[in-house]
Amino acid sequence: MTNHSFKPELEKEQWLTWQLMNIAITIHKALGPGMMKNVYEKCFCYELSKRNIPFTSQQPVPIVYNSMNIGEGIKIDLIIDKLILIEIKTEAAYQPVWEAQLLSYMKLTGKRLGYIMNFHVPLMKDGIKRMAI
Known about the structure:
By secondary structure, this protein is α+β, with helices and mostly antiparallel strands. Helices cover 40% and strands 31% of the residues. The protein has a 5-stranded mixed β-sheet with strand order 1-2-3-4-5, with helices on both faces.
């Protein structure tokens, strides 16, 4: 028996991904590299709102270790339509630990798709890393 309920979600993820890439490139073309992280994040939120795409920013995520609730352990930059995580970076040198960070956030939230978006690059397409689990 085939599970047909998953296909629309994949189509939604594809549509959201296209929107997110367009937003990142639009912001980068307007501002270029070199701004503070919060500037890009505010612009991203503005663009998401303009497009009526639901999101949360700086979403706290509680950490549970060995059934002990540690409380608010992390804040995720952006969660797009309860499906996709975005981590915004503004550093000249790519850090491989960003991938481990995003994977941890994805596992903690149960999300299967995430993006690292580093705005400190000459071309935005070179600052985007997709991760899926």
